[in-house]
Amino acid sequence: MFFLTILLFSYPQMSQQIQKTTASGKGILSNPKLVLVKTSLNVVMNQNVTLCCCSASGPPPVRYTLFKHNQQVSSLNRSDSTPALFTLTISSASDLGPYKCKAEHNTSSDGKYSNSLNFTLIEPISKPVLSSPTSHTTKGQNVTLSCFSENGSLPITYIFFKGKQSISPPMMMHEREAAVIFLFVNSSTDSGTYKCKANNSFPSSMKYSNSFNFTLAEERSHSQALIISLGLILLLLIIGFALAIPFFIIPSYKAKKYKSTRPSTGFTSTVNVEETENDVIYAEIEPVKPEEEYINFSVIRREDEKAGKRECTTVYSRVLIRN
To answer: Is residue 10 helix, strand or coil?
Structure first.
C-alpha cells in the first residue's frame, strides 16, 4: 500500500519528464561538418573557394555562422535541410584560416561547432640553380651536383638529367634545402651537359635549371701546356735579345762608327807619265763620312830651293775619298 501511494504521486512528474525528453530529442542538433567544395585545400593567391556547413540531424530552421580566427565572417538561415554555402576569396595570408562554422536554432542560444579547416597557400617555384663544389675533375673522381630552388611552396620535387636522359629518381624535399646526387667520372662523356628540373603543387610550375659541365684535367693540361710553352719561348727570345744588345749590337755599332771616322795613313805613289822618270807623286788617302761619292785631289808641288842639288823633283798629293 505504501509503494502504491508513492507510485501514484511520482507518475505525473515522470510523465512530464518523458514528454520533455521526447520533445527535446526531436530538436537536438548534431555537430555540423565544415567541408571544402570541389577544390583542394592548397590554394593560390586571389583564388575563390567555397565552404559547406551542414548538420546531419535537427529540425529546421537552422542558422549557420562561419568564423575565421574566432571572428564572425558570415551567417545564413536555412528553413530546410539545405546546407549553407560560404564563398571566400584568398587575398592574403590571413585568409588561410582556421575556419569553423556554428549551427543553432533561432529560438535557442545553444549552438554546436564544427571541425576547423585551414588552407595552404602555394607559390610558384623560382628557376632552380644547378651547381657543384668544383667544375674541374679527373677520371676516376667522385663529384657532387646540387639543385636548389630558392622560392616556391614546399614540398619541391627535383630530377637530375644528363643531356635529355634522367639520371635520378624524383627527389621530394619537404624542407628548404637542395637535392644532391653523387657522380663517378669514368670518361669524357661524364663531363656533361647536366641539368635539373623542379616542380611543386602549383599549376604548371615545372622549371629547368642552368646547364653545367665539368672540365676534365686532361683537356685542360693540353691548352695549359701550350700556353706555358709559348710563354717560355717568348721569354727566351726577350732574354736573348737583351743579351745581344751589350755583347753584339753595341760593339758592332761602335766598330762601324770608329772605322768611318779613322783617317787612313797609307800612302801610294804614282808616276806621272807626263813628267820625267825621276818625278814621283805621293797621295794620302783619307776616307770621310759616306754622305756623297766623289774624290778630291789636292796636289802640292814642292820644289825645294836646293832642288838643283837633287837629280829629280818630288810632288806630294792628298787624296780624299768620300763614299
So the answer is: helix
Burial of 70 (0-12, 13-18, 19+ CB in 10 A): exposed
* Residues 112 and 102: beta-carbon distance below 8 Å: yes
Average pLDDT, rounded, for the chain: 77
Position 20 scores a pLDDT of 43
> How many Å apart are CA 312 and CA 283, to the nearest integer?
18
Which of the two residues, 26 and 136, has the higher pLDDT score?
136
Question: What's the pTM value of the predicted model, to 2 decimals?
Answer: 0.48
Residue 272 has pLDDT above 50, yes or no: no
Could you give the CA distance from residue 138 to residue 208 in angstroms, rounded to a whole number? 27
Q: How far apart are CA 281 and CA 267, in angstroms?
A: 10
Cis status, amide bond into 193, omega within 30 of 0: yes
What's residue 317's pLDDT?
60
Please compute the mean of the pLDDT values over residues 66-70 and round it to a whole number. 93
Least confident interval from 108-112, 118-122, 183-187: 108-112
C-alpha cell at 243: 743579351
Report the alpha-carbon distance of residue 113 to residue 65 in Å, rounded: 9
**CA pair distance 268, 278, nearest whole angstrom:** 16
Helix (H), strand (E), coil (C) string for 48-92: EEEEEEECCCCCCCEEEEEEECCEEEEEEEECCCCCEEEEEEECC
| φ, ψ for residue 16, nearest 5 deg | -65, -40
Distance CA 29, CA 51 (A): 20
* Strand-pair partners of 43: 121
pLDDT at 280: 54
Q: What is the pairing mode between strands 156-162 and 171-173?
A: antiparallel
DSSP letters for 86-120: EEEEE-SGGGG--EEEEEEETT-S-EEE---B--E
Q: What mean pLDDT do residues 15-38 have?
A: 64
Q: Which amino acid is at 298?
A: S
